[in-house]
């Protein structure tokens, strides 16, 4: 999985007044958990742009004055009105311990059903993955090439290279639905087939 670097500064004071002052200065209060003790730090609001405002997921290298930590974003709080970042929790990674993350699904291939007039529906945009940090994928590839109209792609058909997918086996990742136009055409064809042929009057 790709990683981005967040440069920040450790916080000596973690009280409400210090937290408010940090936010007023355009800084985001953060806490890194998972180590021997929590590490409190701040970083500029813009430093999180490539981490928070994107559909992609990343691991994070937290650089606090040359002291670095490998981590993942665990929780984030936004202001209810302005959507400004108020606080972020990170979790420190251990190269020898598996972790769980939600990873985006990437659709590949041209579905036979879609080319025949069906409509593709992506039921799962992210999937929960468990793996060692080094084996975390950037995305889960969902190949829809063989999906005919009305078919479903189950999670059991997805690749699992050095990681585990934690959803049940009956989880539908994507499906090709019959479009309204195709359904109407099928109904009209069925009616035409059932209609009695007009014979000549004797």
From TrEMBL:
UniProt cross-references to InterPro entries, sorted A to Z: Rbsml_bL25/Gln-tRNA_synth_N, Ribosomal_bL25/Gln-tRNA_synth, Ribosomal_bL25_b-dom, Ribosomal_bL25_C, Ribosomal_bL25_long, Ribosomal_L25_dom, Ribosomal_uL5_bac-type
N-terminal signal peptide: none
Family from the record: Belongs to the bacterial ribosomal protein bL25 family. CTC subfamily.
Reported function: This is one of the proteins that binds to the 5S RNA in the ribosome where it forms part of the central protuberance.
Classification via Pfam families: Ribosomal_L25p, Ribosomal_TL5_C
Annotated protein name in UniProt: Large ribosomal subunit protein bL25
Source species, domain of life: Bacteria
UniProt xrefs under SUPFAM superfamilies: Ribosomal protein L25-like
Complexes and interactors: Part of the 50S ribosomal subunit; part of the 5S rRNA/L5/L18/L25 subcomplex. Contacts the 5S rRNA. Binds to the 5S rRNA independently of L5 and L18.
Keyword annotations of the record: Ribonucleoprotein, Ribosomal protein, RNA-binding, rRNA-binding
CDD domains hit by this protein: Ribosomal_L25_TL5_CTC
Single GO cellular component term: ribosome
Large ribosomal subunit protein bL25 beta domain residues: 98-178
Domain Large ribosomal subunit protein bL25 L25: 6-90
């Amino acid at each position: 999985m790709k990683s981005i670097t967040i440069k920040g500064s450790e916080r000596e004071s973690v009280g409400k007044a210090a937290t408010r002052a940090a936010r007023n200065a355009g800084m985001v209060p953060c806490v890194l958990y998972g180590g021997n003790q929590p590490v409190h730090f701040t970083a500029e609001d813009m430093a999180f742009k490539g981490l928070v405002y994107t559909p992609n997921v990343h691991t994070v290298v937290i650089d606090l004055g040359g002291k670095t930590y490998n981590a993942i974003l665990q929780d984030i709080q936004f202001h209810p009105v302005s959507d400004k970042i108020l606080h972020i929790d990170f979790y420190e990674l251990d190269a020898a311990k598996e972790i769980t993350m939600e990873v985006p699904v990437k659709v590949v291939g041209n579905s036979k059903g879609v080319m025949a007039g069906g409509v593709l529906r992506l039921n799962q945009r992210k999937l929960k993955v468990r793996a060692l940090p080094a084996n975390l994928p950037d995305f889960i590839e969902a190949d829809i090439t063989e999906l005919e109209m009305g078919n479903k792609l189950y999670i059991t058909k997805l690749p699992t290279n050095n990681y585990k997918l934690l959803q049940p086996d009956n989880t539908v990742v994507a499906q090709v639905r019959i479009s309204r136009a195709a359904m109407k055409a099928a109904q009209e064809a069925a009616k035409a087939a059932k209609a009695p042929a007009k014979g000549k009057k004797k």
